[in-house]
Amino acid sequence: MLVYDKICNIDRDIFDCCHKNPGNETPGGDCCYDAWVKDLVQVTADWKQANADAQNKETEYNLTVEELERLKGWWSDWEATDEKADALCRQLELFTLHLCKVCMVTEKTNDAIEILFCMTEDLYIRVDKLKASYDKLIQCIQCLKRPELAPGVGIMKCIENYGAKLDAVILTRDVLITQIVTALELAYGMHLSICEDYGLKEVILYWKKKFNCGGTCGEQPNPNPYPQQQAKIEHSGYAKECCCLEPRISLPIDEDEYFIHLENDYKKLKNEVVQLKKDLDAAKEKRDALLSCKQSLEKAIEEVNPANKCK
Predict the structure, then answer these.
(1) Tens digit of pLDDT for each residue in 218-255?
(2) Cβ-count burial 196-206 (b if 16+ within 10 Å, e if not)
(3) For residue range 165-198, what is the model confidence (pLDDT) as tens digits?
(4) What is this structure's pTM?
(5) Partner of 300 at 20 to 30 A CA spacing, among 52, 151, 187, 291?
(6) Distance of CA 146 to the CA centre of its chain
(7) Higher pLDDT, 284 or 22
(8) Cα–Cα distance for residue pair 71/63, rounded to 1 Å
(9) Cα 311 from Cα 45, distance rounded (Å)
């Protein structure tokens, strides 16, 4: 920046100013006036250059900020989508864990109902054998035709009560077997609908695989079910064109190459905006300083202008 000596209204100061003025030009009425005019030309040129630089920096800064906002919006959308996908994966994992427990319970329930059915079947087989033995006993007693074995008398009363209870147990067979079979059918149906192929559990595992979610229940999915493909037009033998779009995002999104590249671009552009702001502030500061110097020179020249002394 130019530095000037303070000029007073005394002849000695004017003489010193003229004495310090370099060059072989013939000075005018005021030697400092001629030097300041030359300085003003240089300062004005520097100010115009600084002003142009500041305007260019401001334009570059505004365009970069606008690009950053667009990139931030695009990156934020992908980040929000990734968070929702992660939340969905957590829900699917929790649902799968519950289904695994349900499948274990239904499997044990099926085994228990099968055991109950076998025990019930064995019970009624034994009851049928007892009924057959009871009928043979009654036939033998009737063949004896003994008066002490008359119906409703003595021991016959106990035997008849025993037979009545056997008949009562036999009457429950149809109802009980029907209920056990119904329970077994429902248990098998629930297990098939939830745990077997094409059941609810397999559907959840299918979507876990599509979303590339990890988990402890079920098989681990392919880490990259959708490999990256280049966008191009493929010509087929049937004179048709196939347009392959790019990018094709794979899940999880935060591990996808495109998302990582997008995030890096956003951070890089954000740092560029910070640096451009510093450069813009420095350019404006330089422009304002030169403008202040220019205005000071113009005011000083106006004060010592020989044309104004005779007025």
Answers:
(1) 554 454 444 444 333 344 445 455 566 777 788 888 88
(2) eeebbbeebbe
(3) 999 999 999 899 999 999 999 999 999 999 998 8
(4) 0.57
(5) 52
(6) 93
(7) 284
(8) 12
(9) 31
Residue 268, token pair as written in the block: 């890089």
Local confidence band at 210 (pLDDT 50, 70, 90 cut-offs): confident
* Residue 106, amino acid: T
Greater pLDDT, 18 or 202: 202
The answer to whether the CB of 40 falls within 8 A of the CB of 300 is: no
Strand partners, 241: 235
256: how many CB neighbours lie within 10 A of its CB? 21
Identity of the residue numbered 162: Y
269, 73 in Cβ contact below 8 A? no
CB-CB contact of 34 with 48 (8 Å): no
Q: Of 46-60, 152-166, 208-222, 296-310, where does mean pLDDT reach its minimum?
A: 208-222
| Residue 7 identity (one-letter amino acid) | I
Place of tokens 């959840």: 204
| DSSP code at position 242 | E
DSSP state of 147: G
Give 153's Cβ-side CA count (13 Å radius). 7
- What beta strand segments (E) does the chain contain? 233-235, 241-243
CA distance linking residue 257 with residue 261, whole number of Å:
6
